[in-house]
Amino acid sequence: MDLYQKYPIRLRINEQDREFDVESWVTLLDLLRERAGLTGTKKGCDHGQCGACTVLVDGKRVNSCLTLAVMQNGHEVTTIEGMAKGNELHPLQQAFIEQDAFQCGYCTPGQICSAAGLIAEGQARCRDDVRELMSGNLCRCGAYPQIARAVIQVMGIEEPDTKKEGFTTGAVLT
Amino acid sequence: MKPFAFSQPQDVDGVLALLASEGARPVAGGTNLLDLMKENVMSPTQLVDINLLGKAGLDKVEEADGGLRLGALARNADTAYHALVKERYPLLSSAILAGASPQLRNMATNGGNLLQRTRCVYFYDVGTPCNKREPGTGCPAKHGVNRQLAILGTSEQCIATHPSDMCVALRALDATVHVRGKGGERAIPFADFHRLPGDRPDLDSTLQPGELITHITVPDADRFRAHSAYIKVRDRLSYAFALVSVAAALDIDAGGTIRAARIALGGVAHKPWRVEEAEAALVGKATGEAAFEAAAERILQGARGYGQNDFKLVLARNAIVQALTTATRGTEHAQGKGNQQPNGERP
Fold first, then answer.
1. In this complex, is the C-beta atom of A27 within 8 Å of any C-beta atom belonging to chain B?
2. Cα A172 from Cα B201, distance rounded (Å)
3. Where is the signal peptide (chain A) (predicted)?
């Protein structure tokens, strides 16, 4: 048994077919960053705890650090680089700018991919649902109120009450 | 991660043949196993990707014999949001949605959820002794960082907790785990699936080497549908493991008398904790604090803290009373808000 064997895989990344030879232990995250040259997806904790590596696989948001590239053979991956159409930003990207939803920006690609997955899942009805369903994406700058505002702006649900929202250092709001 | 061989068999027999060799482990969602491999807590020499078995129907959630059949490969999110689960097993739906994050629930499978390993910090840190990771090396948790750890069913060797939320609901709902091995199929009642640590804390479950979980069945739970609640108490509002969680389900007659009760706890033991005697004692009683406190007392008989987790004795009692009180008021259907305060109250 050759432990260092390489496995030929084919992925459709951001609507482009790509082929790679990967060792078994290469995560999807490392493949995207180191082999596909797509460094928009961020390596935060590398343990599925921060959400910075969130991408869409077959339209569903996942932590790309906790899946092997070889396990995704034949699947379709969308990263932050695949969100905009040419020079036209994805509505979420535009909303993040309008709502000042990032500070250092490190978590932003994962936040935006996660928000796209959230919208596609169709489970959120109000801002509290959005907050709960964005809980897999941590932001050390604490831009959560703006992030939630950006997402609900795109979803066209419930106007946020900015007076009540204010600044918070923790999870407890309203 | 240490190097390992990888394969993707097409059918169950192919998987079982590969799992027979030492050092081989199945992988499906990978959300816990790959994490443990990155930390060198587990180092399989061969990973058997079982995802192709989805084509053989192992990823289905469906009605079966008046109850529920959950394929081992169905994702946690697909299970929690499945119309049948939401409508007829709201307790299970709530428990799943209280666990992990949406990204992880999209990947993690039902079978894998049962097999996830403790998040005890000593188990995760290969620089420290741990009887669960390396039997015979000791348990620093008993006198160390044990805020998250067990108060019931512990042993001299180990005070780890089982981290799952889903399993707490499955225990309350009397689920059965169906497995296949070289010798054929067998069914394991949920109560017997996870183990107490005893002197073999390295063994989390009664699943035998080479066996594969194929599906989980849950009997009809219609009588509990109107009055169930999953309460999870943790250090932050969402996306954290339980300090204490309670799956409570009541069957109450028109006069407010309890016909049947189910109560299972998470975050307090090496397995979902349930004391059927306490449930039996509730039958015929009126719902209310007095009856619920008596049940809590019986469930927590023999509980002991290890210092940092002493608070769980009180927390567990209060959580049991709260869960039963919330269940009495009526089931709140989880819709991405399984983690808010009981009964929609806000802090």
1. yes
2. 37
3. none
> Which among B6, B47, B106 has CB closest to A62?
B106
For B230, the token pair is: 């999953």
CATH ID of A6-82, from 3.30.450.20, 3.40.50.300, 3.40.1190.20, 3.10.20.30: 3.10.20.30
Q: CB contact, 8 Å: B255 with chain A?
A: no
Architecture of domain A91-155: Orthogonal Bundle (1.10)
B212-218 and B67-71 beta bridge pairing: antiparallel
For an interface test with A, the pick among B101, B234, B337 (most A C-beta atoms closer than 10 Å) comes out as: B101
Q: In what order do the strands lie in the sheet with B5-7?
A: B5-7, B46-49, B24-27
DSSP summary character for residue B347: -
pLDDT at B2 over 50: yes
pLDDT band at A161; cut points 50, 70, 90: low
**How close, in Å, is residue A69 to chain B by CA atoms?**
11
Q: Give the tokens for residue B156.
A: 């001299």
| Phi and psi, residue A68, nearest 5° | -85, 140
CA proximity to A130, closest of A114, A113, A107: A114
The CATH class for the domain spanning B224-340 reads alpha beta
Domain ranges in chain A are: 6-82, 91-155
pLDDT tens sequence across B216-248: 999 999 999 999 999 999 999 999 999 999 999
Q: So where are chain B's domains? A: 224-340
Residues of B in contact with A1 (CB under 8 A): 5, 45-46
Residue in the structure block whose two tokens are 């299972």: B264
Taking a C-beta distance cutoff of 8 angstroms, is the pair B319, B244 a contact?
A: yes
Nearest to B108 by CA among B29, B22, B13: B29
Determine, for residues B102 and A68 on separate chains, whether the beta-carbon distance falls below 8 Å. Answer: no
ipTM of the complex: 0.94
Spatial separation of the C-alpha atoms in residues B321 and B132, rounded to whole Å:
32
In chain A, what residues touch B51 (CB-CB under 8 Å)? 71
CB A46 to CB B38 under 8 A?
yes
pLDDT digits (tens, 9 = 90+) for B267-288: 999 999 999 999 999 999 999 9
Residues with Cβ within 8 Å of B290's Cβ and at least 6 positions away in sequence, in order, are none
Helix axes A108-121, A91-98, angle to 10 degrees: 120
List, as ranges, residues 114-133 from A with C-beta within 8 Å of B. 114, 117-118, 121, 123-125, 128-129, 132-133
Q: Which amino acid is at A99?
A: Q
Closest CA to A96 of A112, A110, A77: A112
Q: Which residues are paired to B24 by β-bridges? A: B46
- A70 CA to chain B: closest CA distance, Å? 9
Positive or negative CA dihedral for B14, B20, B21, B24? positive
A83: left (phi over 0), alpha (psi -120 to 50) or beta: alpha
